[in-house]
Amino acid sequence: MIRIGQGYDAHRFQDGGQLVLGGVNIDYPRSLLAHSDGDVALHALCDALLGAIGKGDIGRHFPDNDQQYRGVDSRILLREVHALVVREGFRVGNIDLTIVAQKPRLAPYMEAMRASIAADLQVNAEQVNVKATTTEGMGFEGRGEGISALAVALVEKT
Ligand code: MG
User: Fold this and answer.
1) pLDDT tens, 78-100?
2) Among the listed residues 110, 91, 102, the one whose alpha carbon sits nearest the alpha carbon of residue 134
3) Cβ-contact 19, 25 below 8 angstroms
């Protein structure tokens, strides 16, 4: 049996702080405002995985009014979601992730994101695809107000 899930997230930029995308620190003078580390890509991925196993969404599992998740490394959330996937009797088939950002240029970080996500999901890097696109200046991402991410996850019953 295979199941599929999708996820979407968006966060607003703030000046300063550490920008983290796909579990990787990005060299940029702005970061994403969030209760956690603001890793919009991993949040979309968590939602895709939770969707695939029919377990709601990231906000249900890690409430943003819960102090234990303040500033949390989203890789910890992804690993917890993966543990739930395994407990429910599934393994990850493949992941496809798209980050929508006008800036910064993310191409230099793609392979590191792929490796980070593959490690957290205990799969081969070939099972994880990470892409980035601009919106040619249109919309909130294009105006540099924030970054969004979309993810699809396929899981297989073990
Ligand atoms: Mg989020």
Assistant:
1) 999 999 999 999 999 999 999 99
2) 102
3) yes
* Structure token digits, residue 29: 């003078």
pLDDT at 65: 85
**Is 39 strand, coil or helix?**
coil
Structure tokens at 113: 């994101």
Ligand 1 geometric centre to CA of 47 (Å): 10
The number of residues making up the chain comes to 158
What is the 56 CA–ligand 1 centroid distance (Å)? 14
Domain 2-157 -> CATH class: alpha beta
* pTM to 2 decimal places: 0.97
Distance (Å, whole) CA 34 – CA 110? 22
Map out the domains of the chain as residue ranges: 2-157
Cβ distance 7 to 51 under 8 Å?
Answer: yes
Distance 148 CA to ligand 1 centre (A): 9
> Is the Cβ–Cβ distance between 157 and 90 less than 8 Å?
yes
Q: What is the DSSP string of 84-113?
A: HHHHTTEEEEEEEEEEE-SSS--GGGHHHH
